[in-house]
Input
Amino acid sequence: MSQLTDQQIESLYKFTRQHFVEYYDLQTELVDHMANGIDQQWNENTNLTFEQARDREFKKFGVFGFMDVLEQRQKAMSKKYAKIVWQHFKDYMRLPKILGFVLSILIAYTILKYTSVSEEFFLGAIVTSAIIYISATFYRRKQIKKTRVASDKKWMFEDIIFSQAATGGVALIPLHFYNIFGRLSGISEMNSVWILILSMIICSFYLFLYIMTVEIPQMADEYLEQTYPEYRMV
Output
């Protein structure tokens, strides 16, 4: 059982925030680690003050303090997020969802192969989809901010989910298709295999976009509860 008082525990939470750890889940882990270290120091030397023991524990984290721990956790959570995105994508490669994906590829192929699409129309469609995408992500960001105000807690994985969804610049990636494949007026004359590949790339891109912007944010609470057992209680 910890020898630290509730006030000292809260002081450790404040200490982590002062050292640029804004995520409650990482704060809790660091507080538990430091509290155990302080208890051990007191068992060895009862003359140490709380502040002295705390500072000694903090020095064990090295020159950069908590930053190394923060960076390692961010990498781990980003890897976890990428696996979730990939799992959602693979779900669309199974029946019955794959039927809709194949249909979207065929529609894109037909438009590119047999329809005379002007450059203005193609670029306009990309810009319009980007505007819709960015608007939707800003709306979701406002929703999560309201949740944070109500709970007064910030979770790293939650931040990753919604910050990835709000990376608006990614919505303009299809513009690079224009540079890669040349003038749009020549697409219909391209080899059918290349048009099919282009159609698959475009549809896959927008499927990833949908997964990151709509599906995963809608399931955010479920994933957060799986990651943090204490999330529902807080």
Residues 68-227 form one domain. The chain has ten helices and no strands.
